[in-house]
Amino acid sequence: MKPTVVLHGYEAVKEALIELGEDFVERRSFPIIDKVNRGLRIVFSNGNIWKDTRRFTLMTLRNFGMGKRSIESRIQEEAHYLVEELRATRGSPCDPTFILGCAPCNVICSIIFHNRFDYNNQDFLALARRINENVKLLSSPWMQVYNSFPALIDYLPGSHKIIIENTNFLRSYFVKEIKEHEESLDVNDPRDLIDCFLIEMKKANNAETAFTYENLVITISDLFGAGTETTSSTLRYALLLLMKHPEVAGMAKDESCESPESAWKMFLASLILGLGRRPLMLYPSSSPRATGNARTSRQGSAHEGMVPQRSADSVAMREEERRGARADMGTTILVSLTSVLHDDKEFPRPETFDPGHFLDDSGKFKKSNYFVPFSTGKRNCAGEALARMELFLFLTSILQNFNLKSVVDPKKLDTTPVANGFVSVLPSFQVSFVPV
Asked: With contact defined as beta carbons under 8 Å apart, do 59 and 382 qualify?
């Protein structure tokens, strides 16, 4: 019931989020999130709390290896556990949702808690289940109704109550971890993100500081959820696409197929970096199959398989009149990332899976400014470098060790999301991981 402006297309989005980034940096109100977070956290907070929390998070992620070889080794280790868990299915059909969620969740756990969990750990299972449930509920039609009429519906039963219950469960676990960290904290040797935050809390002498106990709990919740569900969803989407296009997978395994014209069809060949060897994120050309056009086709397929995991919305910070639309201060600005990612001028067949969208006429990878699945500007995803590394290494490890077999005719596989709200929720599917 409030004035809203929707930004559609690359030029409009670029102008708002990059050229006028400071004027569109505030987040609008999101009732269900506001209710459980009270204006804190990194994603939906504003002002100095958001700036300080984001700055701290980026710095800490980098210090603990985001984008570096140190975190790459950790992800490779987790990829090994992931492969072993998939191997335990013995090629039987399974829903990969939970297993694929465990791997990125454990990477986040190692950064936040300095610890990883066995995939059958009961605490871990409970955390993963509640995160997955919350993401689905946040994208349901009921949440759209709730966010439109929170004052009325807040007193009624419904799935919003489940979200609050799950959130409280997660935070009670995080509080327990924080207390254990407080008891063993060494300010001269921080082990993880919690230690770093506790050290900043000791330094803080400002009543309006972002470094409070409550904000630590909520920031952990943000990182835990965002660092788990979005990456696992993209991994599942990639597997779904690979099963739906078996002819491409077949050609990709044919090492004799190396012509530039068919480079885009070889994207799996550049992912399968030699059986029995762990993939290296920083040195993909070390593989004999990841050279020339095969290497660039891998990049093309990785870009084509990525899906936007969030919509971007902000609030105008001053009066603006652009492109024939006037936005007064406080106007909600909705940014359609889909309009950029599906622009048919940049991507001739936007509704079709085609890694060729990211290859030039000679089969070499070409960068596109329209590729913004992590958004862009000052509110872009803080964990983009980590997510990119995880997606490459986890997917590569799976394809090194297994052939993917659909339990239904690949042509009948539906990749259409079953819900579009907070995120896009993919349909459930069964896959057999057949050892190579």
From this structure: no
Tokens of 129: 């289940």
Feature table: binding site for heme: 381
CATH 1.20.810.10 fits 4-429, yes or no: no
| Nearest to 192, CA basis, from 109, 254, 78, 267 | 109
> How does DSSP assign 88-129, residue by residue?
TTTT--B--HHHHHHHHHHHHHHHHTS----TT-HHHHHHHH
CA distance 66 to 58: 9
The Cα–Cα gap between 329 and 6 comes to: 15
Q: Residue 215's closest CA among 353, 68, 42?
A: 42
Burial class (CB in 10 A: 0-12, 13-18, 19+), 430: middle
Can you give the pLDDT of all 436 residues of the chain as single tens digits? 677 888 899 998 888 888 887 777 777 767 777 777 664 455 656 677 778 888 888 888 888 765 555 788 889 999 999 999 999 999 999 999 989 999 999 999 988 988 889 998 998 889 888 988 888 888 888 888 888 888 777 778 888 889 889 988 998 999 999 999 999 999 999 999 999 999 999 888 776 788 888 889 988 888 888 888 888 888 998 888 888 877 665 554 443 344 433 433 334 333 333 333 444 443 333 332 333 344 444 455 555 555 444 444 544 444 455 555 555 666 778 888 888 888 889 888 888 777 777 777 877 777 788 888 888 887 788 888 888 888 888 988 888 889 999 999 988 998 888 877 777 788 889 999 999 8
Tell me the torsion sign for CA atoms 213, 215, 221, 226.
negative
Domain ranges of the chain: 4-429
Dihedral (Cα; 17, 23, 29, 34), 10-degree rounding: 90
What residues form the annotated binding site?
381
- How many angstroms separate the Cα of 44 from the Cα of each of 29, 153, 255, 354, 409? 8, 22, 48, 34, 42
pTM value?
A: 0.80
Nearest to 273 by CA among 436, 404, 385, 433: 436
